[in-house]
Amino acid sequence: MAFGSSPADTRDIYTPGRLNREARILLEHGLPSLWLEGEISNLSRPSSGHWYFSLKDESAQLRCAMFRQRNLAARFTPRDGMHVLARGRISLYEPRGDYQFIAEHIEEAGEGVLRQRFEALKTKLAAEGLFDTARKRPLPRLPRRIGIITSSTGAAVRDVLNILRRRFRSIPVLIYPVQVQGAAAAGRIAAMIHLAGRRAECDVLILARGGGSLEDLWAFNEEIVARAIAASPIPMISGIGHEVDFTIADFVADLRAPTPSGAAELVVPDSEEWVRNIIALTQRARAAVRRALSQRHDRLAWLQRRLAQLHPGVELRQRAQRLDEIEQRLLRSMRTHINERRAGMLHLGAVLRQHSPAMRLAAARGRVDAACAAMSSALRQRLESCNAGFEIAARTLDAVSPLATLRRGYAIVTNDAGRVVTDARDLARGALLHARLARGTVRARVEHIEEPAPSAPLEASPEIPSPSGSRDRSGDRNAKT
Length: 481
Hints:
Blueprint: H1 16-30, E1 34-44, E2 51-56, E3 61-66, H2 68-71, E4 83-93, E5 98-108, H3 111-127, E6 146-150, H4 155-167, E7 173-177, H5 185-199, E8 204-209, H6 223-231, E9 236-240, H7 248-252, E10 255-257, H8 260-267, H9 271-309, H10 312-354, H11 357-400, H12 402-407, E11 412-414, E12 432-436, E13 441-445, E14 476-478
Parallel strand pairs: 3-5, 6-7, 6-8, 8-9, 9-10, 13-14
Antiparallel strand pairs: 1-2, 1-4, 2-3, 4-5, 11-12, 12-13
């Protein structure tokens, strides 16, 4: 038995590999992702594409690694002595037991503050709705003129012009030269955007700038530029930096291109493709026209055959013959109908003459004339008879008339009341009397009354009334007895 060992030995013995592995696990899970700032030294970039370097400060240094899939997104090329800011996690390289920092993102140390400003402005403008998809305008399919806002001496304008010339040479381009880097660049860019909008010379604007660091592109992250893009009346496309570069202008613009060259490709169609499409459409149109003409020709031939079979002249002749037949039938029917109506009218005329009221009227007129003659004769006879009777009655009346008595010298005496006086005793002295004579009337007043002797009988004389039943005052004369 070896010295120092026992059958019940329970010690947990580590190997270097196991120790390094567990140390790595503890480091990776015990410490969170963190930011590390320092100066690059001992930079190595092997053919694998990974970066190996050290970050140091005044008191220490730390080995670092940044693998290829991560460093492709870096916005700059690192070099020894550069002060950087890296984000990553702590790990351990097990084969050698080296304690190291695995970088996932790296930027120049000055970019940290700029990045914070970028995020703050991005949040602010997003809350205001400047990044909303609803406010973004579509680009014209084929612009009449293209405006480019960029530096007139940079490589970006040359790339854009070359691509525009290659894709669609006939579209004119107007360059608005402006400073795209430096402290005054943001204000000048915004002023140029406003100028292009006021002049309204273009259908679309390209805001372009070549690649660079965050500081180089910072003019396109200023609020004044973002608000100028939002207020532009002309649709804008941004082509700033490389594909991995994002600026505030990219979010506000109506369309973002990864590069200036990409913006040129997006703003105009490919003329060769248009020509191919036009040729293809022309060929399709010709084929369609040929097919349509062939169909129309076949249709016309069929209609001609059909017309020959069913010529309107034949149909018209048949219809004309049918019309003549109908006309003859109509004439015969009309003649028959007229003859029947004429016979009926003659029969009705005969019946009407038999029952005509004229004959009855003539007979009645004869009877009326005979009745009138008989009535005239009877009336004359009646008048003659009445006249004879009247003459007899007049003679009889005249014989008994009081007037005849008056003509013999008698008078009719009446009092004021119009009553005939036959008895002197009925009168009083001073009474007014009226005596009617044969001609005229006498008014008298009683002065003396003589009563008859008792033995002598009074001669009764008939009371002769006045023909009018009242006193006749015409021809009155006053007389006193």
